[in-house]
Amino acid sequence: MLGHVEDIASAAELAQRLAGTGYLADEGLATIGFIALAMHRPLLLEGEPGTGKTALAEALAESLDLPLIRLQCYEGIEASQALYDWDFPRQILHLRTIEATRAAQEGVDVEEVEKSLFDERFLLARPVLRALRESPAVLLVDEIDRADDEFEAFLLEVLSTYQVSIPELGTITATRPPVVVLTSNRTREVHDALKRRCLYHWIDHPGMAREVEIVRRRLPQVSQRLAGQVVAAVQRMRANADLLKPPGVAETLDWTEALLALGRDSLDLETAAATLGAVLKYREDADRVRASLDTVLAG
Fold it and tell me: Which of 49, 106, 173, 188 has minimal Cβ neighbours within 10 Å of its Cβ?
């Protein structure tokens, strides 16, 4: 498994491997992805929700035959939730066992007992620590923009050295850097220091032809006609600046799959109105599109 990353000889080969998983990367994304692998640098992906940022990390793991370790960021996340924690209930049980078995003995070695409480078996490895210990692996740090400055600073330190210090056990260093992908929906700006540590790429929604190809690659049973109709309608929805959440590629696939489930081979006005819930996830957006649905379908 150690050689899989080095086996990628070019951006074109990476694109081909990703395509084998159903992920179609354009030339720019394949190039920056290849450079990140070659330089052992984290890759920071920004873009609107639904543009395939998380899916790229999943496709990388599959194409490289590496485990995917995911850290989902959220407001208030702390370093311990990304790094490690101690299994407190098991530690208490262990302590009580020691007390019970040594009750009849004199002179319990307190230092020895404390040391046993922080044994490897009681360590709960969180995603970042797991990635360092299990590398080669793909570490996905999803939605880093949801975390705060303190967490970013912690992550920057880890990504600069690929090692962490656990006071009770010592320093743990990755034998080789994991493949790291960070994603951001840009709800806030990621700090420059973290950006400088990473290679960067902005992912746009795909163009018409590429999105049709994605649909047909992921749903091979769909006809060219239906795929073209759905993608054209979704692209017109995205062009509507009034939508709260423009649909991403995931919604395009959901809508197409919903139509297939209904046995449709074309997108008509009645069916589109009945299935908008597969592509639009806000009532206000559905109402706006429904009011001009004939235009959305006609172009």
Answer: 106
Q: Which helix (H) or strand (E) holds 16?
A: helix 11-20
Least Cα distance to 145 among 20, 44, 26, 221 occurs for 44
65-69 long-range contacts, CB within 8 A, separation 24+: 65/1, 65/4, 66/1, 66/4, 66/5, 66/136, 66/137, 66/138, 66/179, 67/134, 67/137, 67/138, 68/137, 68/138, 68/140, 69/127, 69/130, 69/131, 69/134, 69/137, 69/138, 69/139, 69/140, 69/178
| H or E stretch at 212 | helix 208-218
Nearest to 108 by CA among 119, 121, 118, 95: 95
Instruction: Quick: pLDDT tens for 92-148.
Output: 776 666 666 665 555 555 556 666 666 667 677 789 999 999 989 999 999 999 999
Beta strands in the chain (DSSP E): 43-47, 68-72, 84-86, 123-125, 138-142, 163-166, 170-173, 179-184, 199-203
First to last CA, the chain: 49
Task: Give CA–CA dist 68/131, Å, rounded.
Answer: 9
The SS3 assignment for 253 reads: helix
Half-sphere exposure for 198 (CA within 13 Å, toward CB): 28
Strand pairing report for 163-166 and 170-173: antiparallel
Using one digit for the tens of pLDDT, what is the confidence trace for 164-182? 888 777 788 888 899 999 9
Query: According to the 3-state scheme, what is the secondary structure of 255-284?
Result: HHHHHHHCCCCCCCHHHHHHCHHHCCCCHH
Model confidence, pTM = 0.82
CB 178 within 8 A of CB 129: no
